[in-house]
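Worked Example 4.2. Consider the chain below.
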Amino acid sequence: MQASQPSISGTRDYAGDDAVALQTARDAIAATLRRYAYAAIDPPILESSSPFLNRSGEDIRRQMYIFPDPGGREVCLRPELTIPVCRAYLRQLHPVADAREKSPKRQARLSYFGPAFTYESTSDGRYRQFYQAGAEFIGAQSRESADAEILAAALDALEATGLAEALVEIGDVEIRNAFIDQLPIGERSKTRIRRITLRNQKDTRIGPAVSAPQTAAFEASNEFGELASLLASVEPGKAELLIREVFALADVRHVGGRTPEEIVERLTSRTAQQAEPISAELIQGVMALLNIRAKPEAAFKAIRDHFRTFRIASIDPVLERCETRLRYVNAYRQRPVALQFNVGLRRGLEYYTGFLFEIFAKNLMQIGHLCGGGRYDNLLEGLGADASIPAVGFGIGLDRLLLALQKAQTPVSSAMRAPQALVVAAGMNGHEECIRVSVTLRDAGWSVELDSSERDERNALSYAAKRKIPYVVFAGAGKSKNGQVRIRRLNDRTDQLIALTFLESYAKGESAAGSPGKKS
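Applying the procedure from the previous section yields the following structure tokens:
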């Protein structure tokens, strides 16, 4: 017998209960976002690579699946869904400017679900093809209000899937930018430091630079180090021409996720500048700021003290916006959420401009964050809008979420996916009547499993109990009377004979009385 073909590394098959759990989580999240008035959008998996290469940053560009299509265009499998949703918004929903209004904006709440692809190290809950569900709130002028709504919607969506306890980390890019912008160093060094602080924590190289007084220690990547050294010996006016000719001869379209134009600019700028000295005190100041991580009130005090220590202008306007945002979040919550403020929080995407957050399963921090998001007010302008458009959103990693629910042994997922009724033929020739009964119950809003295995009554009841199906409906000949079905409620083990003409009303009444299977 020929062995089955193995799956591609970093992918997994969702089948059986796993597939049902994935669909259940998706449905629970979608239902929650509908209650927040988010409309569904479904952008294509195949996208142009350039928006991601230009806007996402180093962490994403190194891991993208990029390839030429048969027509010679450079395309990619989408590595995330925020940029595709924003592109679709600009194409489908953003009004065209006219003479009376320079930059019209249309507010939109959009939700999505689908696979995304990044080539990264794999582990449980982390795959190269993974599923994301999320939402984007575009065009809201009240930023703090929109931020709070997005975080509240994300928490409600996770709770709807069965996540019992969440831990939330929040931050704000504006805080570290305000500090770096006022350091007594050149703009080029500020840019490099700022770029590094935006990168994912595991890749940040500020730590080792504390002992190095030169800005060169801050370089985010040294992938072109040897070539840059070689070009430094070339006449400045000829360096760019040399690089372009080499790429043209080799038919280079991208290297490490960079376009040839980006590589040329990066190399020539590197050879044209000398490293600017930065004092260890300033480097340590950046590190100390990024290390502030505490409950919001304590974090805000530490941030204010830190700015005063370095004689940097007041950070109060930014922190006041943070405090307003938190008041709005608390107004959404019926019960408090475990929350801490982390100045060093960074999402690994360069397009974030302000508010950031990540949500973890409490006591399962080793899995990593289940949901992350933030504000990206400049992204849509970079994608073609005529002006900046405020926007904020989140994405839930469903693979990681399902792993967290499994490890927490959350019972709600199995209860949610169980049908409300099992319809079984009471005799040998009752399948046609079972079909009619199933249709009636589904019309009443119940989820129904129609038995097709010809189980006897004992096996049918055992199967329903194992699956936690609250009702078993016996239809057809046998113990039931003409024009009636017999319904067994498993929670109290009682039987009822219900007329077929009254079956839909009965089902609706049971649903109205509470969860199916409970006494009314």
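The CA atoms of residues 214 and 277 lie 5 Å apart. The longest strand covers residues 108-117. Compare this with Example 4.1 before moving on.
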